[in-house]
From TrEMBL:
<dbReference type="InterPro" id="IPR036565">
    <property type="entry name" value="Mur-like_cat_sf"/>
</dbReference>
<dbReference type="GO" id="GO:0004326">
    <property type="term" value="F:tetrahydrofolylpolyglutamate synthase activity"/>
</dbReference>
<dbReference type="InterPro" id="IPR013221">
    <property type="entry name" value="Mur_ligase_cen"/>
</dbReference>
<dbReference type="GO" id="GO:0046656">
    <property type="term" value="P:folic acid biosynthetic process"/>
</dbReference>
<comment type="pathway">
    <text>Cofactor biosynthesis; tetrahydrofolylpolyglutamate biosynthesis.</text>
</comment>
<protein>
    <recommendedName>
        <fullName>Dihydrofolate synthase/folylpolyglutamate synthase</fullName>
        <ecNumber>6.3.2.12</ecNumber>
        <ecNumber>6.3.2.17</ecNumber>
    </recommendedName>
</protein>
<keyword id="KW-0067">ATP-binding</keyword>
<dbReference type="InterPro" id="IPR018109">
    <property type="entry name" value="Folylpolyglutamate_synth_CS"/>
</dbReference>
<dbReference type="GO" id="GO:0008841">
    <property type="term" value="F:dihydrofolate synthase activity"/>
</dbReference>
<dbReference type="InterPro" id="IPR004101">
    <property type="entry name" value="Mur_ligase_C"/>
</dbReference>
<keyword id="KW-0547">Nucleotide-binding</keyword>
<keyword id="KW-0460">Magnesium</keyword>
<dbReference type="Pfam" id="PF08245">
    <property type="entry name" value="Mur_ligase_M"/>
</dbReference>
<dbReference type="GO" id="GO:0005737">
    <property type="term" value="C:cytoplasm"/>
</dbReference>
<dbReference type="GO" id="GO:0046654">
    <property type="term" value="P:tetrahydrofolate biosynthetic process"/>
</dbReference>
<dbReference type="InterPro" id="IPR001645">
    <property type="entry name" value="Folylpolyglutamate_synth"/>
</dbReference>
<dbReference type="Pfam" id="PF02875">
    <property type="entry name" value="Mur_ligase_C"/>
</dbReference>
């Protein structure tokens, strides 16, 4: 007798309905979300003080460090991030806890009713639900991560945040944000607000020029990396320096040199908010952010890997590839094999090129359930084009089994997409 599949959680059914309200997944504008927020009584005007974070790389890690620092000071913090990895609930952390299933269903249904069937994207209506949750639950701070870009992102509805942050800007999502670094930086700079201090992470000159011009035009004070604050590694620790003085701190528990600059942006934000030195230390030592060079230590995929180390990363653009290569180069030496799945909207060769010299080979896989996935053979073709030895695999589990059979003590990195990372985390329990 065949056992029936378990029924999907109630929130999944509501989320599936919400995905049908607009023909496009991404359609950048503020009009629809502003209309819905007005119908809901403007929850965006009743939030605890907001820290709004944009950028191409490092948004999530920086936000995680800010959260760790604030919570170490005893502050209660709401957090909104995207995309999720395993479950939608990860996107909405209410007063420090992932949103409960019943609460999520109730919020989504309230937003669905207030929307009245009008066209609205999935990200817009779910962002409204998160803001509604945050407005109705007491907390000390709200951390909002931009979904895409900034200027027209659904999170950009906060008139007077406590601070804004722009992490490093690089080329990504050109079909939505523009072809040049300056155009993309202009979209990110759309989160700047008059009179609101913005912390600016390390930027290329073309991006910084645009950000500074926008700030000057609207009167937004900036505190800029390598001008108003500095962060660097020294003797196995990090040093942070700004006008308030010097901090001597442990290296971030998140791996990689790029996490040092992310820590700098988080520390600059925390210092602006008046957080103590102890809180700043907690920011770099207690932050948690899955699928950012995460070592997997338990679960069926880890068991299948046997004596191989199993690592996971969701980076997917050239800057992420460079950061990954640098971080992997710091680990104790082991043969490295990549299991890679990517979307066809990404610069695949740009991501893989920095990793080519480190990896013995690559196995290309498709990302199940993603219409825009590259097939395994397509990823392999790009990998070979940048000089890598590469073969397709049926799926991640098969790739791991093949690597274990041929190189039992190797290091395996599953990489190329947050969607692939989420799939892996679900399969690995």
């Amino acid at each position: 007798m065949t056992r029936a599949a378990p029924e999907a959680p109630g929130s999944d059914r509501v989320l599936e309905r919400l995905m049908t309200l607009h023909p496009k997944i991404i359609d950048l504008t503020l009009g629809r979300v502003e209309r819905l927020l007005a119908a809901l009584g403007h929850p965006e005007r009743r939030l605890p003080p907001v820290i709004h974070v944009a950028g191409t790389n490092g948004k999530g890690s920086t936000l995680a460090m800010i959260r760790a620092g604030l919570e170490a000071e005893g502050k209660v913090v709401h957090v909104y991030t995207s995309p999720h990895l395993a479950r939608f609930h990860e996107r909405v952390r209410v007063a420090g806890e992932l949103i409960a299933e019943d609460a999520l269903i109730a919020l989504l249904e309230r937003c669905e009713a207030a929307n009245g069937g009008a066209p609205i994207t999935f990200f817009e209506i779910t962002t409204a639900a998160a803001l509604l949750a945050f407005a109705e639950t007491p907390a000390d701070y709200t951390l909002l991560e931009v979904g895409l870009g900034g200027r027209l992102d659904a999170t950009n509805v906060i008139a007077e945040p406590a601070a804004t942050v722009i992490t490093p800007v690089s080329i990504d999502h050109q079909q939505y944000l523009g072809e040049t670094l300056g155009e993309i930086a202009g979209e990110k700079a759309g989160i700047l607000k008059p009179g609101v201090t913005s912390v600016i992470g390390p930027q290329e000159a073309a991006a910084l020029d645009v950000i500074e011009a926008r700030a000057a035009a609207i009167g937004a004070p900036l505190t800029v990396a390598n001008r108003d604050w500095q962060v660097w590694e020294e003797r196995g620790r990090i040093a942070y320096l700004d006008a308030r003085g010097l901090l001597d701190l442990p290296r971030p528990n998140l791996i990689g040199a790029h996490q040092v600059s992310n820590a700098g942006a988080a520390l600059a934000t925390l210092r602006h908010l008046g957080v103590s030195e102890a809180g700043c230390e907690a920011a770099v030592t207690r932050a948690e952010w899955p699928a950012r060079l995460q070592r997997l230590r338990r679960g069926p995929l880890v068991e299948a890997a046997g004596g191989c180390e199993l690592w996971l990363d969701g980076g997917h653009n050239p800057a992420a590839g460079e950061a990954l290569a640098e971080a992997l180069g710091r680990l104790p030496e082991r043969p490295l094999h990549l299991v890679t799945g990517m979307l066809n909207t990404k610069d695949i060769s740009g991501f893989l090129r920095p990793l080519a010299a480190l990896a013995r080979d690559l196995r290309g896989v498709s990302i199940p359930g993603e219409a825009a996935t590259l097939s395994g053979p397509e990823t392999v073709a790009v990998a070979r084009g940048v000089g890598m030895k590469a073969e397709p695999a049926a799926d991640v589990a098969d790739a791991i089994a093949e690597i274990r059979a041929g190189d039992p003590g190797a290091r395996i990195l599953i990489c190329g997409s947050l969607y692939l990372a989420g799939r892996v985390l679900r399969e690995n329990g």
